[in-house]
Amino acid sequence: MPSLCVFGAQWGDEGKGKIIDRLSADVDFVVRYQGGANAGHTVVVGDEKYVLHLVPSGILHPGKVNLIGPGVAVDPLTLLGEIEGLRSRGVSVDPSNLHLSAGAHVIFEHHKRIDSLSERWLGEGRIGTTGRGIGPCYADKAARTGVRVCDLIDPERLALRLRPALAEKNALLERVHEAEAFDVEVEIERYAAAGAALAGFVCDTGREVRSAYREGKTILFEGAQGMLLDIDAGTYPFVTSSNTGVAGVPAGAGVAPNQIDRVIGIAKAYCTRVGEGPFPSELSGADAEWLRSAGNEFGATTGRPRRCGWFDAVAARYTLELSGADTWVMTNLDVLSGREVVPVAVRYRRGDERWTEYPASAATLDGMEVEYDELAGWQEDITGVRSWDDLPATTRAYVEGVEERVGVPIGMLSVGPDRDQVIPRSARRPALNLVGGL
Ligand code: GDP
Ligand code: IMO
Ligand code: MG
Q: Rounded to the nearest 5°, which phi and psi values hold at 378?
């Protein structure tokens, strides 16, 4: 089973880090293909909690090769800090297990400053970005004024590319944003030092992953964010600036489309969203507070409280269909313990009109009402359960009820943050039981 893409099927923070860490035990390569340090992927191993932003979630398994592909927007200072942070906790990170694509675009300090400043101009339309410089970096990539890792590690090329680009950004900062400009030469020096520190990790990751595929190695493409934040398929303009799902893999990892064998979505047993934009099944008041506190729903990157709502089967059908996912993993099922009933969004409504297909336009979703099916809840603590048969009957009925409404089989359940807290359902897809029970 050579390769699989694991992506977020909601608005991010679905527990991708936990599941990818778990599946990494059975793969040879883990490849990030888009996004940047806007991602916060949490992995819990016993008493230790790691939040990964740029380093792929396979890093905690010795002997796995972790690649940061050409589609990732890399903040070199954040990456160096992350490598140092992992090393200080005894995790080995070196050029034998972490490779950085020479083609990846570089995020500079000015991208982050512009990210925050341009939000102020948007007023009501502000996106609520993570402030990590993602949008401005991908904008420069499209405008062909970006700086890539191959430039970063070559001081002459860095100066050649960064000097004019930053001169233009300084004009923007001073004249439009009335903000402080950067000292161009100081920035060139600072980033040249970062480039020198990263140079040993840099290679042609696309070629590496293509030949690994030919040799029959197992490759996991690690998605960041979620499909509803996808720049094309998501609730534009309240999205991130990359293709978050399987469509992002070929360009972002440097592989051929037919080198992606399977696609697996990750979704919580309810929904969360950070930042602005439509969220049809969003809760307010006591129920929202309850979910936020039961699920500890605070951003892994920014610490912001996440908006919370019930599971949205309309949205999940859309994201799983669009990605061609044959299986998905339901995470955070344990969080729902203690409810009498658990609603599941099954249709949208405006006036007499009913929607069973997700309209991926923020404007269409505005003011949409939601129709719910009410499934029976359960009271038991399920965090210690490891097999399907040991789950309370009502929990099993909830899972099957959601599965039926989504129409794609659930291959694994997650019942707590620790890497061991999973319930495989391999019986659902016996023929595909190849990686970590999926
Ligand atoms: P990611 O961005 O998709 O990797 O998800 P995050 O790490 O941002 O957020 C998921 C949060 O839920 C983290 O705090 C995880 O430790 C936690 N988590 C993951 N799976 C489970 C689960 O099954 N149950 C509970 N209670 N927490 C989980
Ligand atoms: P992981 O990988 C949740 C959201 C931001 C904002 C929008 C645009 O941990 O699931 P950006 O900084 O990308 O320009 O912000 O996208 N966002 C995320 N929300 N999880 C993430 O990543 C996110 N990355 C970006 O909150 O609404
Ligand atoms: Mg996250």
A: -140, 155
